[in-house]
Amino acid sequence: MGEPRRVLLAGDHFVRNDILADRLNRAVSADLDLRSITLPWPLEPFGRVSEVDEASDVEDTMLEQLTDAEIVITQMAPLTERVLAAAPALRLVVCTRGGPVNVNVEAATARGVAVCNTPGRNAVAAAEHAITLMLATVRAIPPVHNSVAAGEWRSDLYAYDACGAELGGATVGLIGLGAIGRRVARILRAFDATVIVSDPFVDPATLPPDVRLTDLDTLLGSSDVVSLHARLTPDTANMIDRARLATMRPGSYLVNTARGGLVDYTAVADALRDGHLAGVGLDVFPVEPLPQDWPLLGSDRVVLTPHLAGATRQTAHRAAELAAEVVAAYLAGSELPGLVNSDVAWRT
What we know:
By secondary structure, the protein is of the alpha/beta class. The protein is 31% helix and 18% strand. The protein has two domains: 5-121 and 312-332, 3-Layer(aba) Sandwich (Rossmann fold); 123-304, NAD(P)-binding Rossmann-like Domain (Rossmann fold, 3-Layer(aba) Sandwich), CATH 3.40.50.720.
């Protein structure tokens, strides 16, 4: 028998090393030398580390741990050019998230290191969270809860002008129809909502049943609720700006569980203040954590969660399962699921 294949598990307090090890042991029959370090996220926030984003500040630790590892599995370790240069045996990086922003993919490719991600790991969680935010926003659940918890019993909230809205019978516009958007659409159809979608990359032949494809401007002008599920790119940055907010239906609602950079939140605050928007539900923000003077704090028509849409135990297990499938394929010399740098010259 050959030497065991050395694998570094750089898990954290969400995608834990024990979960990763369990899934690997189930999926892989080869002899593995598993080593592990636990990164501080989410007990300590992530940030930019050298040239990569959304990573734990443990570059020096990774320099020490990766000297002879062939495979690393992580969602928060900074795989910078400096770290990759110090890992001559490394051939596979499995990033247990939807996008490997914590990995210098260009530097990895130049060194023959395959980089894979785990797309769809949080699709169920994020879709359910988007629906939760919609319901909490259109029914103004947080301020009503706070009122009852404070000992009040406001029967005046039954007044017509104070009532919330329903998703049943509403038109809900989804901007983006990836794995999360498709699941949101399916749930909304169970509510008897009319679902329309704007996504330039969707083949109309692949639309879910009873979902209609349209352009962005038509969607904004036709929807009672607009929910964002698009990727943040140079083309989509600030796509919901002051001009586009003005085209939304008066009294409509905006929900964002995708990326904060998709929306001009200063313009959203103004649209709420003048009554053009009835409510907003947000899980993502341009700066995290939020500054104390952020314009949407304190409004009873805004529902806020701290970037938790993907935070379920099932997401962690699904990420580990997908990562284990990548490692199994790599050791078998097969096509790698979730391969980001398809032009890499990797070898098992």
